[in-house]
Amino acid sequence: MIPAMAVHHRVHRQHRGLGQMVLIGLAGVLALGFLMVPLAVIFAQAFAKGWMAWWHAVSHPETVKSIGLSLLVLAVVVPINAVYGLAVAWTVTKFRFRGKKWLISLVEMPFSVSPIVAGVAALMVYGSSGLLGPFLEDNDIKVMFAIPGIIIATLFVTSPFIARELLPLMQLQGSDDEEAALTLGAGGLSIFLRVTLPNVKWALYYGIILCAARSLGEFGAVSVVSGQVRGETMTLPLQIDLLYHDYDSSGAFAAASVLTLLALVTLVLKLVVERFYDREVESTQAERAPEN
């Protein structure tokens, strides 16, 4: 009986090991085919004519402006979304009120709305024939087909990322630490800065990185609201598309390589922060385990 059971377990482990190897191999093939090969092609095409040709394409005034505009949008969008995400997560996890589930659904709505639809919706609100269009025109305020419109569209698309990273961790942590600080006489702002924020800092960093990556790569909503004015409202993704359709493949791949490099930087930062974020979650789970 014992030898039979030992053989059964050995066969089971062999099948499980074989299944794991097949899944790992399949994941590797898919990653190679859909991720690594396209990335290699981008850099190969970008530097096909040499470093000088690549630098000439990247340093073109319109491309430089598109890079600067993308970074400007990122610099505006990320801090706003950080404040928004912290406010939403704080409200949902630290207070009890009716409609909490509706608020969470509202936060997640941009995930289910097409970016192009979001851009059209922005036009219907801020465009010349939109809801606020006459008021904006009377006060000589230009929103659509200008930088403010690009920022608004990007804010909508990227708004859930930081909040969605903060919510699970803050729900797991509960409000015991804040209640303890409150009983010791700490004020609301002091509790937030000295208790809540340090407890969720790695989740916040993680959400910021995801938000920044999404902001840099946004195309659909921005293409609708920007007007695609050369040298004025062209973000880096729009500039790549413009160069490609102008049959300037060298310039398109050179610009795409810059965007890819920025994406790789965010990926490396994500991997670093992810380690600390996982430790933060594991530490919180370990602290809450005795209570359960």
UniProtKB/TrEMBL annotation:
Ranges of residues in domain ABC transmembrane type-1: 67-273
Q: How does it sit in the membrane?
A: Multi-pass membrane protein
- Key words, A-Z: Membrane, Sulfate transport, Transmembrane, Transmembrane helix, Transport
Which residue stretches, if any, does this entry annotate as coiled coil?
A: none
Q: Which organism is it from?
A: Paramagnetospirillum marisnigri
Question: TM spans, by residue?
Answer: 21-47, 67-90, 102-125, 145-167, 252-273
Picking any one GO molecular function of the record gives:
ABC-type sulfate transporter activity
InterPro entries per UniProt: CysW_permease, MetI-like, MetI-like_sf, Sulph_transpt2
According to UniProt, the name of this protein is Sulfate ABC transporter permease subunit CysW
Q: Name the CDD domains on file.
A: TM_PBP2
Q: Which Pfam families match?
A: BPD_transp_1 (PF00528)
Describe the subunit structure.
The complex is composed of two ATP-binding proteins (CysA), two transmembrane proteins (CysT and CysW) and a solute-binding protein (CysP).
